[in-house]
């Protein structure tokens, strides 16, 4: 089902740098507001150039965030060895996490490829589901305040690619992927039901190569065709777009 009545906003920026700065400022505001309201904030980070640029911009202008009361989760991960520079966690640490006084126990990285070769994306996904449940008020997932998402040119978000079992998943909150069309093949990803647990879902998208998928997703495509179309926040969904990514949207 694709409910277009939910609160969806499009935030048009000029350049990719403007997207990063606007999303970073909104991120700081949302984290501070969550901490004021509930004493803590739970955020889900994403990889990709735009997602990491936002973290870099947060580091440069962190406002009044109390880093000791932030819980960090990841939307997906490339199932690679622990320090691999292609891992989203490694990139997020380099951009932001290693430079602010987070409580290390509150940074919830996805399990990774075991050095001994044991495990699998599926077992890692099941372990991460347990982590989410353990930090949940009701045995499901934490109440994520903000879930950041990048988007690929064909509309993928996290490691949810078009026409895959992962994007069709309706029950589990985390699944393993063995055959990602974008390398590496092995990944672990939050599913659409997990994304939809977030109060705010923000899609950070830049570049002309994304324009058609943006227009399809905002226009109400089926999530199995354009996964980003299924990414909805409980309170709000915001598209942060540069001019090129917004080019195929109607002018209003
Ligand atoms: O896991 C991956 O292969 C990437 O992280 C990928 O999912 C990325 O987030 C999007 O393709 C958007 O990337 P850009 O923001 O760099 O366009």
From TrEMBL:
Q: Which InterPro entries match?
A: 6-phosphogluconolactonase_DevB, 6PGL, Glc/Gal-6P_isomerase, NagB/RpiA_transferase-like
EC number(s) from the headed UniProt entry: 3.1.1.31
Give any GO molecular function from the UniProt entry. Answer: 6-phosphogluconolactonase activity
Pathway this chain belongs to: Carbohydrate degradation; pentose phosphate pathway; D-ribulose 5-phosphate from D-glucose 6-phosphate (oxidative stage): step 2/3
Assigned keywords, A-Z: Hydrolase
Q: Which reaction does it catalyse?
A: 6-phospho-D-glucono-1,5-lactone + H2O = 6-phospho-D-gluconate + H(+)
Glucosamine/galactosamine-6-phosphate isomerase domain spans which residues? Answer: 15-239
This chain's function reads:
Hydrolysis of 6-phosphogluconolactone to 6-phosphogluconate.
Q: Which family does it belong to?
A: Belongs to the glucosamine/galactosamine-6-phosphate isomerase family. 6-phosphogluconolactonase subfamily.
Protein name per UniProt: 6-phosphogluconolactonase
Organism the protein comes from = Rhodococcus aetherivorans
Q: Which gene encodes it?
A: pgl
């Amino acid at each position: 089902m694709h409910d277009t009545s939910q609160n969806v906003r499009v935030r048009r920026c000029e350049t990719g740098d403007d997207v990063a700065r606007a999303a970073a400022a909104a991120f700081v505001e949302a984290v501070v507001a969550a901490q004021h309201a509930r004493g803590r904030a739970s955020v889900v980070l994403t990889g990709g150039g735009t997602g990491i640029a936002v973290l870099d911009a947060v580091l440069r202008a962190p406002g009044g965030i109390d880093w000791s009361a932030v819980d960090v989760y990841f939307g997906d991960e490339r199932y690679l060895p622990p320090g691999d520079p292609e891992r989203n966690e490694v990139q997020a640490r380099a951009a932001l996490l290693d430079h602010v006084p987070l409580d290390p126990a509150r940074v919830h990285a996805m399990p990774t490829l075991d050095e001994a070769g044991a495990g699998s994306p599926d077992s890692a996904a099941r372990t991460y589901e347990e982590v989410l449940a353990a930090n949940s008020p009701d045995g499901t997932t934490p109440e994520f305040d903000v879930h950041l998402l990048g988007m690929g040119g064909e509309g993928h978000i996290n490691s949810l690619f078009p026409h895959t079992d992962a994007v069709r998943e309706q029950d589990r909150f985390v699944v393993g992927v063995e055959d990602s069309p974008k390398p590496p093949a092995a990944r672990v990803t939050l599913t659409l039901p997990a994304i939809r647990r977030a109060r705010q879902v923000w899609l950070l998208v830049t570049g002309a190569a994304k324009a058609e998928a943006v227009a399809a997703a905002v226009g109400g495509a089926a999530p199995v065709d354009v996964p980003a179309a299924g990414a909805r926040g409980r309170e709000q969904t915001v598209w942060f777009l540069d001019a090129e990514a917004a080019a195929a949207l109607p002018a209003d």
